[in-house]
Amino acid sequence: MNKSSVLTQTNLDDLLQWLSTDRESAGQKYEHIRRTLIRVFAGRGCYQAAEELADETLSRVANKARTLAVTYEGDPFHFFYGVAKNVYHEYLKRLARESASDVSQMRNGTGLIVQAAADEEPDESEARLECLLKCLRSLPNEQYEIVTKYYEEQKKAKINNRKALAERYLLSMNALRIKASRLRKLLRECVLECMANGV
Amino acid sequence: MTKLDEENLIRRFLLGELSPDEREHFEERLFADEDFAILVDGVEDDLIDDFARGKLKPGDRGRFKQQFLITAERQEHLKFATSLHKALTEGEVVDDRKYFGGWNWLRGRPSLAFSGAFAILLLVSGGVVVWQTLSRRNAQQQVAATQEKPAPTPPTANVRVGEQANQDQGKPSDQGSSNISQPPIPSDTQTGDEKRLLDKGRAVGRSAASSFAVVLLPGSLRSEGDFKEFSVPKGVKTALLKLQVEDDDEEPTQPATYEVELNHGEIKTIHQAGNARSARGSGGDCFVSVSIPARLLTKGNYQAVLRKRAPDGTVEGVGSYYFNVTETRHNKH
Question: Distance of CA A16 to CAs A28, A60, A86, Å?
Answer without folding.
Answer: 10, 14, 22
